[in-house]
UniProtKB/TrEMBL annotation:
It comes from Vibrio halioticoli NBRC 102217. Its EC number is 5.2.1.8. The lineage of its organism: Bacteria, Pseudomonadati, Pseudomonadota, Gammaproteobacteria, Vibrionales. PPIases accelerate the folding of proteins. It catalyzes the cis-trans isomerization of proline imidic peptide bonds in oligopeptides. This is Peptidyl-prolyl cis-trans isomerase. The keyword Acyltransferase does not apply. Keywords: Isomerase, Rotamase, Signal.
């Protein structure tokens, strides 16, 4: 009987923290993000909310800085900001680090202001990590396939538009987003 209970518990915990994979198809190719739902449950659930409602489709990577990061999810090709759900609590103290190919929530100066925008780190950006003196940026996933596509974004020439800089001159559009089964 106890063996059956262990099997049931193992199956339950595996399904709760399944580390969902999300495939992004873009005008430059596709890449896959694996979420860390165990260590970043709020950020992962928030991200999946936008995936499931389909509103990441048609957005662009609106800020790409070689050697730093590629940011997307918040604007369409006309640089019109996309509607958001309410902000979430910052989970940057979860132990996950802003390392190469990690995915984190973008936010304003308010640590608890992340909504739909996310970024993919091109390098180990330790200054974005949580510490006693820095609220940090919450990592919730990792690019596990297609990082070459993400790196290709950094080769696209950029422009400025008003106060916004580092906007790819040729829009990098998210054409489809699916949860990998």
């Amino acid at each position: 009987m106890s063996r059956l209970l262990l099997v049931i518990c193992a199956l339950f915990s595996a399904s709760v923290f399944a580390n969902t994979k999300v495939v992004f198809e873009t005008t430059l190719g596709h890449f896959t993000i694996q979420l860390n739902e165990e260590k970043a449950p709020l950020s992962s659930a928030n991200f999946l909310r936008y995936v499931k409602d389909g509103s990441y489709e048609g957005t662009i990577f609106h800020r790409v800085i070689p050697g730093f990061m590629a940011q997307g999810g918040g604007f369409d090709e006309n640089m019109t900001q996309i509607k958001t759900y309410g902000p979430i609590k910052n989970e940057a103290s979860n132990g996950l680090k802003n390392k190469t190919a990690s995915v984190a929530m973008a936010r304003t100066n308010n640590p608890d202001s992340a909504t739909r925008q996310f970024f993919i780190n091109y390098s180990d950006n330790e200054f974005l990590n949580y510490s006693s003196s820095n609220p940090g940026y919450a990592v919730f996933g990792q690019v596990v396939e297609g990082f070459d596509v993400v790196k290709k974004m950094a080769s696209v020439p950029t422009k400025s538009n008003g106060f916004m800089k580092d906007i790819p001159a040729t829009p990098i559009v998210v054409t489809k987003v699916t949860i990998q089964k």
